[in-house]
Amino acid sequence: MLIFISLIISLFQLIPKAENAIARKKEAKKKEKAIGSDAVDNAVSQLEAKEEELVLEDEFELVAVISAAIAASAGTSADGFVVRSIRKIRR
Q1: Given 10, 17, 55, 78, which residue has the most CB atoms within 10 angstroms?
Q2: pLDDT (tens digit per residue) in 20-79
Q3: Which domain holds residue 21?
């Protein structure tokens, strides 16, 4: 019986080590989740930035086409005027 009790007492040394290992694993999982969510946030922000660039490029192309159409119908160069805004007319 004394040998059994001494074995149990000697195992008490391993409990803090096991608890530390479990705590480290939990922290590693939390960090992985945080890194994963940061990566998703970064990817979303990059996609939004690219989308804004595409919209601006589309707007610049629209302005260029409208300017060229006005210049062609007036028979002048597009250098003489500036497009400040574009509105769609409902008919």
Answers
A1: 78
A2: 888 888 887 777 666 666 666 776 777 777 777 766 677 777 777 777 777 777 777 777
A3: 14-80
